[in-house]
Amino acid sequence: MASFSSRILLLATAAVFACSGCVVVNPSNVSVGGFSTRRGDPGPPETPYASALRDVIEQQAAVRTEINDRDWVEAGEEIDDWAQLSRKLVGYADTSRDPIRFRAYGNELLGAIERLRLAVGRQDAQAAANALNACDPILNKFSRDFPLVAPSDPPQTKGDQQQSHVSPGASPPRSGSASPEYRVSVQVP
User: Fold this and answer.
1) How far apart are CA 84 and CA 117, in angstroms?
2) Which residue has the higher pLDDT, 175 or 109?
3) Phi, psi torsion values for 20, nearest 5 degrees
4) Which residue in 35, 54, 87, 103 has the fewest CB atoms around it within 10 Å?
């Protein structure tokens, strides 16, 4: 009988909470209408490619796990996902401040991923480890040169860029000179 009464009590409690609108939430980042419980400054906005770059970096860890476990089939599937995420990342090149460099890094990463795919296909653990480690500097360059947070000043478009040039009368630095003296003028359209 106690079991029956405890079920009734539990059911009644659940009904009260459901009817009263009680919900468990994470209070650090809740937004309802125009009101937000987010603590502190939300910070600067992320770049359009931030999520894609984060996904690519996280996928490398998944690939590493499968290679370390010598699960060649799973490693191949994770590599396929990584290549797909990397191609998606390269698609964001035009949203970066240096699209040419962004594409170059992306293509370099895709080449390294293809070398990794070949090593995994041969089930060559050492070649796979080397190919995977070769991706680290590429991802480091991405992270260094293309931060996840948008710059405080938006990048200038070609029409907004300032033109600068060195005056014809400028001379190259004298050898042994501590500070070169160039005259630079800036023209704003």
Assistant:
1) 13
2) 109
3) -85, -5
4) 35
The CA distance from 170 to 180, in Å, is 10
Which domains can be identified in the chain, with CATH numbers?
50-145 (1.20.120.290)
For the residues 116-136, what does the mean pLDDT come to? Answer: 95
pLDDT in tens, 66-107: 999 999 999 999 999 999 999 999 999 999 999 999 999 999
Residue type for position 123: Q
Q: What percent of the chain has pLDDT over 70?
A: 57
- Tell me how far apart the alpha carbons of residues 138 and 148 are, in angstroms, rounded to a whole number: 16
Rounded CA-CA distance 81/89 in Å is: 12
pLDDT at 174 over 70: no
